[in-house]
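Side project, low priority. Logging it here so it doesn't get lost.
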Amino acid sequence: MTGTSRPSPAAAPSGDAARRAGKRVLLAAPRGYCAGVDRAVIAVEKALEQYGAPIYVRHEIVHNKYVVKTLENKGAIFVDRTAEVPEGSIVMFSAHGVAPVVHEEAAERKLATIDATCPLVTKVHKEAVRYAKEDYDILLIGHEGHEEVIGTSGEAPDHITLVDGPEDVANVEVRDESKVVWLSQTTLSVDETMETVDALKEKFPLMIAPPSDDICYATQNRQIAVKQMGADADLVIVVGSKNSSNSVRLVEVALGAGAGASHLVDEAGEIDEAWLDGVSTVGVTSGASVPEVLVDGVLGWLSERGFEDVEIVKAAEESITFSLPKELRRDLRAEAAALSQS
């Protein structure tokens, strides 16, 4: 993307003119798809390719309207409840993970399942199970109603208390202050999480931390890149859907880093041209569930308005990949048929 020019209408200034006018774009790197999202989206595509449509998916596979619509057009059917999936069908669980009760519901309905839960979310689930077995009170930092929080809470409902930000800490009670641990939703802001952790530590000095940071590497890297560009940007455009927690956090991080303004858009058509009034530097990034084609659309829109000079703001290299769900190596249609006859 860096150093390339995009065609612009005759009325738009040339690249040289744009630079003289001080118009530029700071493009965050990394941005967009993380390894867990990439794995989940490919898993749906592979399942459709191997087993044919329909493939049912419980909740949105990832929180992005464009991705969901694209997969629907290929034959995926998204449902809110396991009960909506016809018996003997194939159902996939989203990247956000599900509670054990959902696996039980699928078994009762004789469904063949594909678990596309992000491995980093699975790690948090395993931590919850382990600490519950050791009879800890688990303080789960996260947003009420988020699918990942619902899934993690379901792993140990009798031991987990949700803490939705520092303002919740005053109401938290535990059985034994010497056996308390905190876990976190993976897509939160690092700063937001640590603010809550600090408040919890003040109340429960003996509270322990999980063996590794629960905030996922992709969330951290995208936030670091936005922090680096924020102070230099008059405006930061974050590409992502409103139900994407990590995308919403990027807007907050941009403002906290000093950006003059920041807005969340699903695609270029949602940008308000009035946002560019008095703006010479625009930062652009995208949430972890956003395909690059949507970022390209925003860059093209900006280019047509004289913002042709694109500089990369690089925070980290990402090389992590996850293998596809093991269920894709089996004949799930045959399994579903056998289950429905049993």
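Brief comment: The mean pLDDT is 91.
Revisit when time allows.
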